[in-house]
Amino acid sequence: MSAKTIVDTIIRRHKASANPADLYIFDPIYKLNLGDENAAKDTNELMREFDRLCTQTGANMAYAHHHAKGSQFGKRALDRGSGSGVIGRDADAAIDLDFLWVPEKIRREKAAYYKDDSWMKATALRVEMTLRNFESKPPFNVWFRYPKHEYDGSKEFQALRGEAEKDNFARAADGKQKKKEETDSRIKEALEAAIEADGFAQIGDIESSTGLSRKRIRQYLDTSEGYEKDKNGKISRVGLSGKSQSQVDD
């Protein structure tokens, strides 16, 4: 089926409808599977048909398009899409969404403030707009928690940058921080499991269950606000009664 046939069908149904649509959405356009997405000629044909759809129905049209594979560093928002560059440059208004890595500290602060642990897994996005007839807005960051995108004006959150804006050094720093957070999470899960099962935990057991060194486990305990150790080496959750405390085998 050609792009012309699809658009002809939509136009016919639009004109026959007593309450026609004001907006048509194609999401994503590659599922139309019309020609070669990388070929400017085939892509131009599709864009012309989209123009015809808007002209003959008076409706607006929006389409979703995906980023190309691999790093998008250094590319303008309009150049990040897969296939021919015609797709990005045809739109009158383009909104680019780039995944945003958020440090665990920011997520925990949000979860604590709203008393909602869903913030720990909420998707964060960097939004960049390119407008043909109006001044484009500066990039900004949002959270996505189904079904809404939510703006967060905190300076710390808005200071974060999307993957396309990060060079190799910045991505390496993010990778190092992610690894630290994942390791901290493993240690915490092992500690909590031991405390729940036996009422106490020993560093040797945590070392065996996680495969981490005692030095790394102690680093976590020294910086954690959730656990405390007395002068005898006893470790417990902060505020836990003496009954559940146990001496850690250092």
Task: Provide a descriptive summary of the structure in words.
The protein has 250 residues and is α+β, with helices and mostly antiparallel strands. The chain has helices at residues 3-16, 40-57, 86-90, 104-114, 155-158, 168-198, 203-210, 214-223, and strands spanning 23-26, 60-63, 93-99, 123-131, 140-145, 148-151, 227-229, 234-237, 246-247. Helix 1 runs parallel beside helix 2 and helix 6 (168-198) packs across helix 7. The chain is elongated, with a radius of gyration of 26 Å. The protein starts with a helix and ends with a strand.
Count of separate DSSP helical elements: 8
Helix content: 40-55%
Shape: elongated
Could you tell me the strand content as a percent range? 15-25%
* Oligomeric category: single chain
Largest sheet: 4 strands, antiparallel
* Overall radius of gyration: 26 Å
- Rounded mean pLDDT is 82
Termini separation comes to 71 Å
Low-confidence stretches: 241-250
Q: Taking strands numbered 1, 2, ... along the chain, how are they ordered across the largest sheet? A: 3-4-5-6
Question: Which structural class is indicated by helix and strand composition?
Answer: alpha+beta
List SSEs in N-to-C order: HEHEHEHEEEHHHHEEE
Task: Give the beta-strand count.
Answer: 9
